[in-house]
Amino acid sequence: MSTAANRPVGPDHVWSVDEHLEDILSTVRPLDPIELQLPDAQGCALVDDVMVPVSLPPFDNSSMDGYAVRVTDVTGASEEYPAVLDVVGDVAAGDAAPVQVGPGQAARIMTGAPLPPGAEAVVPVEWTDAGLGGGPASGMRARAQAPEGAEGQVRIFRPAETGAHVRPSGSDVRAGDRALAAGTVLGPSQIALLAAIGRGTVRVRPRPRVVVMSTGSELVQPGEPLAHGQIFDSNSFALTAAARDAGAIAYRVGAVADDADVLRSTIEDQLVRADLLVTTGGVSVGAYDVVKEALTEVGEEEGGGVDFRKLAMQPGKPQGFGAVGPDHTPLLALPGNPVSSYVSFELFVRPAIRALMGLPEVHRPRTRATLTVDGPLRSPEGRRQFLRGNYEDGEVTPVGGSGSHLIAALAHANALIVLPEDVTEAEPGTEVEVVLLG
Fold this sequence. Notes:
Number of strands: 29
Shape: elongated
Strand content: 25-35%
């Protein structure tokens, strides 16, 4: 992997959001395709278009339980003057050689069963006496209890037009049609379609394996006692959930203490199950920012290494990106403040995951919205600011303040409000760009 870390930029260079993202997407490559059984392909993206080999349904079949008839035999039928037809047999779903329906005849037919030769329509059983000799029936008696129901006569009380209650061959999809396009992520309905057209396996890009680890000796796992000066580790839980939401298979590693050797060892241990590594915390300029200490030099002898940068954005100014290990596994190092790490994930990690999946569109959808706020929003000049917001019906309202530690507000946001680098103040009623989070 060759990253923009190799570009001749000085240590004081400030990267734009777009430059950093471009560097990531230009170096992260889709995972190699594999052939998977349908149950194992859920959540994966198709590599190729899938064509329909056989029409669905493959034959004309009944959409109702009832009687297969010729239209002329039931024309003008009513309760006062029912059409009386001879029942020549049953047609059940799966019958390979159904009976033939001739003039004055009907075949008792079940939902999904092939329309028998000679029949042109299906009359629902509720429009008949079900062969019982009374008025309109509510249903058929089970064949095991009344096998004689497939014989004798049936009275039909309503007419039917050609094709009534019949699902024509190819009415769903036709042979030669494209069932699913390359890049489609396979969910339950897509897997149902693949199974229906007879595909037992598909060629897909596997879901990326993403390892998420947070750093900081102050971090305590939720559920454990909290001493003075400690905080609960929320970042690793949030980013693991976000990685799964993006389509990855995500593994969460418990918080790593502020020890560069321990962090390097942990990363080396995790490489065996990682297509992408994500760290959070330890990327700023403090004396205990061990991610920078541990990863600045690692992997450079193998053509990799991690570059730590300052970005013209708020929150999320400190960022890291590069490759580690013998396979040059991509690594994104995010800030430790909860909002900074989550915003950074949405802007940089999620697109990387989607790129590994080989998807044609890797970004969250964006739209324009009217800013509803009591007073003007202020933004630092030269930085692209991302504020949490609630978007609804073309309007967006800020949620919480701009502080990168205000995680409670993040839980109530469904969008990010984007204020560009050249905007220092956004008045109420201003039209702004919005990133939709879900």
